[in-house]
């Protein structure tokens, strides 16, 4: 495996398209051949040299800066050559082709997606969470996401995870050492305050887990579903939140045939809003197309962080309309995924006299005490309050400072760690503390944590993570 990762690779490192500067980067061994062919002379290590890049015929292809980093003092930990040329796509492809041709004797090949970062990981220049942060930084769609990915790349998150792991290792060693002196077991643990340390590590883990969940949310976004009977203004609300004409708005009930999904931002948090097809209260749609839409609505609700039950204030009090809302309310209340995440929102506030009191909640929802809001998708009144309420639904009043970006993978690993820690605490609480089992749970907790930074990662996980990078990164 190591041999393969010294194979020289090359790629255009800058984004496709025109730019003032474009970079072709090579990493691996024996790059001196490339230096000689393209630069015509050896380069002073880690110094930028301005010179012509030579074609196969010895004529200049372009002028630019060349940098040569001998191993291991480079971004990948291998020998690296960087050619900074002018940024045109044709020119960069020419330069790349020239490198591949000149590098044939050393087996130079085109880099696979993420391969530079993967080598940095394999050579201990980055841990796995930091490598992921590289991808997140490149992909960041909001300023908040970019800032928090930067923090993760700088190692803030890895630092917290490693501190936790060090404490787990220390505890496990303590327990294992005690195993060798069975007659003194309990005293020894008590003296070292093993239980107290276990409690403290569990508390720290919970805090890291809470922040990591928010970091994952920042990267992956929250899911919001707009539910309600036809014509209450779901499409209009989606449009108002997105600030664009996305969904088809029509005065005929039941005309939103499919769910329409749009991603908006609230305080830098991506929010994926799904407009469901009109949820007919009795589940009986007028036709097949609409019926399929309804089934999908429920699957969207299943995955939602917040479900907005939208109602028409202008029609409140009409018996048939209210009855239809009541039946939707019953279905939402009965749905475990929806019940805890409901927001009751009255739309068309502009269509009733100001100060009109809000009708009571449907009986089915009263025990749930969902937040109740009033707004107008048409005028925009009340939209800001809805945005705040959506963030509060995932535990955010505003974006916390100092957040590091994270992935669901990290949240799951922390969860597994937490499970083993809980087992360990239960064992430690017993009088006959089964120390061998305790040590085993601590080891499992440590392994679960190690998956975050890549200390214990399977090759397929690595492949999956690095395969998502673009080529040249
Ligand atoms: P959907 O079926 O729930 O998606 O509802 P639509 O968004 O298609 O809206 C149905 C009708 O209600 C359209 O004629 C909209 O213009 C109207 N409408 C939506 N929101 C408001 C609002 O806030 N005030 C008023 N007065 N009309 C609205
Ligand atoms: Zn609609």
Task: Report on this structure.
The protein has 473 residues and is an alpha/beta fold. It folds into 3 domains: 4-126, 2-Layer Sandwich (Gyrase A, domain 2); 138-217 and 405-466, tRNA modification GTPase MnmE domain 2 (Four Helix Bundle (Hemerythrin (Met), subunit A)); 222-393, P-loop containing nucleotide triphosphate hydrolases (Rossmann fold, 3-Layer(aba) Sandwich), CATH 3.40.50.300. The chain has helices at 32-39, 89-102, 115-122, 128-139, 143-153, 156-179, 185-191, 194-220, 234-242, 288-302, 319-334, 336-339, 363-366, 383-393, 408-429, 435-453, 459-467; strands at residues 9-12, 21-28, 49-54, 60-69, 79-86, 109-110, 222-227, 260-266, 269-275, 306-312, 342-347, 372-374. It has a 6-stranded mixed β-sheet with strand order 3-4-5-2-1-6, with helices on one face. A 6-stranded mixed β-sheet has the order 8-9-7-10-11-12, sandwiched between helices. Helix 15 runs antiparallel to helix 16 (435-453). The chain is flat, with a radius of gyration of 29 Å. The protein binds guanosine-5'-diphosphate and zinc ion.
């Amino acid at each position: 495996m190591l041999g393969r990762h010294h194979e020289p690779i090359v790629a255009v490192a800058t984004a496709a398209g025109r730019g003032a500067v474009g970079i072709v980067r090579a990493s691996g061994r024996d790059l001196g051949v490339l230096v000689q062919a393209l630069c015509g002379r050896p380069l002073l290590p880690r110094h930028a040299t301005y010179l012509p890049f030579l074609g196969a015929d010895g004529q200049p292809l372009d002028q630019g800066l060349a940098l040569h980093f001998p191993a291991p003092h480079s971004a990948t930990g291998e020998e690296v050559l960087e050619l900074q040329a002018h940024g045109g796509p044709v020119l960069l492809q020419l330069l790349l082709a020239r490198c591949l041709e000149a590098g044939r004797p050393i087996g130079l090949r085109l880099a696979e997606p993420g391969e530079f970062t993967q080598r940095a990981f394999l050579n201990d220049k980055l841990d796995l969470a930091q490598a992921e942060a590289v991808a997140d930084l490149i992909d960041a769609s909001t300023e908040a996401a970019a800032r928090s990915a930067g923090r993760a790349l700088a190692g803030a998150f890895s630092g917290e995870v490693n501190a936790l792991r060090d404490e787990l290792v220390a505890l496990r060693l303590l327990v294992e050492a005690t195993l060798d002196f069975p007659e003194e077991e309990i005293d020894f643990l008590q003296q070292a305050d093993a239980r107290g340390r276990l409690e403290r590590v569990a508390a720290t883990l919970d805090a890291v887990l809470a922040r990591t969940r928010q970091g994952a949310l920042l990267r992956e976004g929250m899911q919001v579903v707009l539910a309600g009977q036809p014509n209450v203004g779901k499409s209009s609300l989606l449009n108002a939140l997105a600030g664009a004409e996305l969904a088809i708005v029509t005065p005929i009930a039941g005309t939103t045939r499919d769910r329409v999904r749009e991603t908006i931002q609230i305080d830098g948090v991506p929010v994926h809003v799904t407009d469901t097809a009109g949820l007919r209260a009795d589940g009986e749609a007028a036709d097949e197309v609409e019926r399929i839409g309804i089934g999908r609505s429920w699957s969207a609700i299943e995955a939602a962080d917040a479900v907005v039950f939208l109602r028409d204030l202008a029609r409140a009090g009409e018996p048939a309309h209210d009855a239809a809302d009541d039946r939707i309310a019953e279905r939402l209340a009965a749905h475990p995924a929806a019940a805890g995440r409901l927001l009751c929102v009255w739309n068309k506030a502009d269509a009733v006299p100001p100060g009109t009191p809000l009708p009571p909640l449907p009986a089915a929802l009263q025990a749930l005490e969902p937040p109740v809001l009033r707004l107008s998708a048409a005028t925009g009144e009340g939209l800001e309050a809805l945005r705040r309420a959506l963030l509060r639904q995932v535990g955010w009043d505003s974006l916390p400072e100092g957040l590091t970006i994270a992935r669901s993978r990290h949240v799951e690993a922390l969860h597994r760690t937490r499970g083993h820690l809980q087992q360990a605490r239960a064992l430690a609480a017993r009088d006959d503390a089964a120390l061998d089992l305790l040590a085993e749970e601590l080891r499992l907790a440590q392994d679960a944590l190690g998956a975050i930074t890549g200390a214990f990662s399977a090759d397929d996980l690595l492949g999956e993570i690095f395969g998502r990078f673009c080529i040249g990164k």
